[in-house]
Design brief:
Two copies of one chain form a homodimer. With about 400 residues, chain A is α+β, with helices and mostly antiparallel strands. Chain A folds into two domains: about 270 residues, L-amino peptidase D-ALA esterase/amidase, CATH 3.60.70.12; about 120 residues, ArgJ beta chain, C-terminal domain (Ubiquitin-like (UB roll)), CATH 3.10.20. Helix content of chain A is about 30%, strand content about 30%. In chain A, the strands form two sheets. In chain A, strands 1, 2, 3, 4, 5, 6, 7, 8 and 9 form a nine-stranded mixed sheet that branches. Chain A has a six-stranded mixed sheet with strand order 13-12-11-14-10-15. In chain A, a hairpin with a 2-residue loop joins strand 6 and strand 7. Chain A is globular and about 70 Å long. At the A-B interface, helix 8, helix 9, strand 13 and helix 11 of A face helix 8, helix 9, strand 13 and helix 11 of B.
Chain lengths: ~400, ~400
């Protein structure tokens, strides 16, 4: 597998575009990704009890396992917008379908931005002709920019992998920059591939890769009202069809997981106001679920996140968060390492190692590793530090 | 019931003191509360998997249901300190017991401060004689100050209530100023009463009053490594003994709940960097547990807390947090009010009411009320807003 240039238009016969429709005061706010031929499609959605209108519509459009276009706006989430919102999401799909001469059931829609504000469907409809005229391979960058909200940079990647002697490509763009979880800022990810793959295999590979990537930056499956991941597979790579469980399937899954993990880490790295990327690993748990619980409790602790921002090896906050996860373990067996230095050994704090760890915390990447020594399961969660800038962004965003 | 002057020394024959032992660089850091005669005693402790040494020792000392003294230090939590920490906690009790000629089993100990730092038992032992010599009724204020960490003000209250023609008094002091939960800054509360009450009734009244007060500022029973509530009842009020389930018991419980709720709200109000006190009420839930889950998800959302700091009625963040709690409800039935103004009605946002709500958010007290319309249960949670000052306090505390 190798990383190649571009993103969603790197696989064969995909085009993209991003334009300014005027929903946001400044910048691009409307994106389109299309396959030149109808593609297989799969999606993963938020588990929030409140689902934005575009998700309800896209879930319906995905039932047949096919799609040819994805239209996405930023600046307004089309959420808590009632029946009018659902109608608007359908209109958004129809606007693309009408201009492209395809069925509106083959158009997926997504939105991100402010919740509970009337949805500006007229601006979107007015911008669709321009959006379609801008479709190109180079359009992937404007598309990646058009889905951004508070993101500081577009998030994009493409990889090429050999499957049975044929080159298969996978590309993706993503947005998300709130601390995601437990704060539920919206995360969007759109993936394309030219792999020839059966629908069942496409669906299962997407589910698995999301579980180990985007869900690693999300608590308990609780996501925002708009979190969405779509994948389109137009099957043009010429490989023999990938079937579930085969060697080719394994190679495809690894490549897809690389893409989603890369994009998930980029989201954590671009956390609002973040100055540090933090990987929390919990080992020696009785179950994967227990390991995940402890890792997320640490990764979501404001006290741990602020200590990391202050570059202080506050082991007490890490231990206290670990203990608060509702998972039983013995304090006398607890090991904690920060950036490779074991600072808690069998429940005893090596206080003299603090200066050494303090130096390592000056780096932009921090690793927190906790070993509960009560089982064999482990989990990883990615997050970032919590700074004054996060508060500024989220308290005074008007 | 009426509010009276003072706190833990308002009930008959209690004394208190607070001195500077040198654990903290500045200020009082060692407190003592005693009853002149042995008292009945009960306690409630953290459910964190990691328990600080003083809690382990105090739990042991509480088994006989009696105590005469409570010694508390701030500046060091005596947590993650291994066997030495347990020995030190015993030494702390013994230092008081020896000077007062009582059994060390009748001394309760508590600590709050930095975790994982060697415990300065020698400083405490050296300060105990001075501490005991300072005991007085007026000592309740220095005691309330000595248990503070990042608190801006001491938290104290006393009430008098008539039980069967006799005046019974209850007093209390508390500390806690982190956002408490899910961030697990330590909460301590020490209560005294001169009520004549049976041990079973004392224990159950304490448990119930904590559930509706301190646990309303805490997530899922997950508390810090040091969270502790103690009550001493010296039975000197002359009332006929309060038995569980009687009318007198009900009156006592109401008074005790008033005291604990007052202190819990004071803690939320004094949240680190807080500028607003926020009460989150969730109604119409299928169970009390569901109501509590939704209320805590809202109260702990950094996005909701920062919006309140910015005085913006960001209804989307409140709705999104409600939906993320893992509790099922119908979006089409959801009502949300902010400070008495219904801004979401059956899932529809009354966008035109935003300016009115924006004005109300300028006040120091904010009410968020959510009605799920799916059952009859409700829950209240108290919290505060999240400001840049919180980050400053918690990132650069060295």
């Amino acid at each position: 597998m190798k990383i190649i240039k571009g993103s969603v238009t790197a696989p064969q016969d995909f085009l993209a575009a991003g334009v300014k429709s005027g929903i946001k005061k400044n910048g691009l706010d409307l994106a389109l990704i299309i396959s030149k031929i109808p593609a297989l499609a799969a999606g993963v959605f938020t588990k929030n009890a409140i689902k934005a209108a575009p998700m309800v519509i896209s879930e319906r459009h995905l039932k047949n396992g096919k799609a040819q276009a994805i239209i996405v706006n930023s600046g307004n989430a089309n959420c808590l917008t009632g029946k009018k919102g659902l109608d608007d999401a359908v209109e958004m799909a129809k606007a693309v379908a009408g201009a492209m001469w395809i069925s509106s059931y083959n158009v997926l829609v997504a939105s991100t931005g402010i919740i509970g504000k009337p949805f500006p469907i007229d601006k979107i409809k007015a911008a669709v002709p321009d959006l379609i005229s801008q479709l190109s391979e180079a359009g992937e960058l404007p598309a990646a920019k058009a889905i951004m909200t508070t993101d500081l940079s577009p998030k994009r990647i493409a990889v090429a992998v050999d499957i049975g002697g044929q080159t298969v490509k996978i590309g993706g763009i993503a947005k998300g920059s709130g601390m995601i979880s437990p704060n539920m800022a919206t995360m969007l990810c759109f993936l394309t591939t030219d792999a020839d793959i059966e629908l069942r295999a496409l669906r299962s590979s997407l589910r698995d890769s999301v579980a180990d990537s985007f869900n690693a930056i999300t608590v308990d499956g609780d996501m925002s009202t708009n979190d969405t991941v779509f994948i389109l597979a137009n099957c043009l790579a010429g490989n023999s069809r990938i079937e579930y469980g085969t060697k080719g399937y394994k190679i495809f899954c690894e490549a897809l997981s690389y893409v989603t993990a890369y994009l998930a880490k980029e989201i954590a790295r671009d956390g609002e106001g973040a100055t540090k990327f933090i990987e929390v690993e919990v080992k020696g748990a009785r179950s994967k679920n227990d390991a995940g619980k402890v890792a997320r409790e640490i990764a979501n602790s404001n006290l741990v996140k602020t200590a990391m921002a202050g570059e202080d090896p506050n082991i007490g906050r890490i231990a206290s968060a670990a203990g608060a996860a509702g998972v039983k373990f013995k304090e006398s067996k607890l090991d904690i390492s920060i950036s490779g230095v074991k600072i808690v050994n069998s429940g005893n704090v090596a206080y003299q190692k603090r200066p050494k760890v303090k130096k390592l915390l000056k780096k932009g990447e921090i690793g927190i590793s906790v070993d509960l020594h009560s089982g064999k399961e482990s989990a990883k969660v990615w997050t970032c530090d919590l700074t004054e800038r996060y508060i500024k962004i989220n308290a005074r965003y008007n």
